[in-house]
Amino acid sequence: MPDIRAIQAELKASKLDGWLFFDHHRRDPIAANVLGLGENGMATRRWFYFIPARGEPRKLVHRIEAGMLDSLEGRKYVYSGWEELHKLLPKLLAGGKRIAMQYSPENNIPYIGLVDAGTVELIRKLKKKVVSSADLVQKFEASWSEEQLGSHLEAGQAIDRIRQQAFEEAAGCVADGKPLTEYELQQWMLERFRASGLTTAEPPIAAVQPNNGNPHYEPKPGGSRPIRAGDLLLLDIWAKTTNPGSVYYDITWMGYLGQRVPGSYAKIFGIVREARDRAVDFVKTSAAKGRAIHGWEVDRVARETIHKAGYGKYFVHRTGHSIGQEVHGNGANMDGLETRDDRKIAPRTCFSIEPGIYLPEFGVRSEVNVYVGEREARVTGAIQKEILPLLA
């Protein structure tokens, strides 16, 4: 159940008259998460739930799915036809002028822009000003409880162990002359997930050059490359515990299938490491001083470092993403490239910092998770200092 009083307090503080939730065919997972609706029952008709800054919440549902929002408090209005829906909407929104919805101007934050344009037009037609719910979502959907932080740290311990074991597995196969492909190593890691009580919506990534030059390379059973001596191996691993409400841990590490890492690889990793560390330090310093910062600012710190080193055009994605119950969560992203994420980083949220340089011959990325508390920020797991030489 949502904490209506806490939401109303935040609405008042933000000078908003209400938060309007709308869904159809479960298109808005944020609404389901914030309102605690789950996935029970059919959802084939439009519904609205309005939390005003003051007073009792109100809901509008279709007659054939009249019980859709019965778990939520508030007065219920019921409609059948579209004319009746349009007639009841003013009653639902009575007293509200400045209303938050899962809307993002110009779709600048696609994770938030979930309400269709026609519905926004419909609300505006009632002379309501629709504003983005992005900051509300951060507070009530992306912020972690102590239990969620604990689940993240628990997953991190297991994943850090599996990461080390995966490098050892690759090194052992190479040393013994045993064939091993990227896909086979990926599947090996998935088996370790299951044995460790972890789950993931998408499998981890194992990539050698030149595939590690593709930021979202996915090993496939029929086309992945063999892992051989002299290869630069990237492992991108994310998972969470199977407990309800648990959140992800998401890292990327680099290893070299040899005794001594070539200078060309070490040079690029050094630049990426510096970009990562400067971005982390910027967040930690800002948090300690109580200074509000935005996602795009963190991205700028990392991006400028890589740009000054002469590799700016090879850093082709944002610096980091929000982490939550989905590996790409609904809090602020560290992004000034793909979008200009101007959300302030909220307390009790977590995100990745993962700069990368992707050359035609090979790619390098280093990823850590940063958790921001009330007046502190910290990396939640091990931090890679150099590419690991994997063969003795």
Description:
The protein is of the alpha+beta class and 392 residues long. It has two domains: 4-141, Creatinase/prolidase N-terminal domain (Creatine Amidinohydrolase, Chain A, domain 1, 3-Layer(aba) Sandwich); 143-389, Creatinase/methionine aminopeptidase superfamily (Creatine Amidinohydrolase, Alpha-Beta Complex). The chain has nine helices and 17 strands. The protein has a six-stranded mixed β-sheet. The termini are far apart. The mean pLDDT is 96.
Keywords:
elongated; Creatine Amidinohydrolase, Chain A, domain 1; about 20% strand; Creatine Amidinohydrolase; six-stranded mixed β-sheet; single chain; about 400 residues; alpha+beta
Compile the SSE list and pairings.
Layout: H1 4-13, E1 18-23, H2 29-35, E2 47-52, E3 58-62, E4 75-79, H3 82-92, E5 98-101, H4 117-125, E6 129-132, H5 134-142, H6 146-176, H7 182-195, E7 198-199, E8 205-208, E9 232-241, E10 249-256, H8 263-289, H9 295-308, E11 322-323, E12 349-353, E13 356-358, E14 363-365, E15 368-372, E16 377-379, E17 388-389
Parallel strand pairs: 1-5, 3-4, 5-6, 10-17
Antiparallel strand pairs: 1-2, 2-3, 7-9, 8-9, 9-10, 11-12, 12-15, 13-14, 15-16
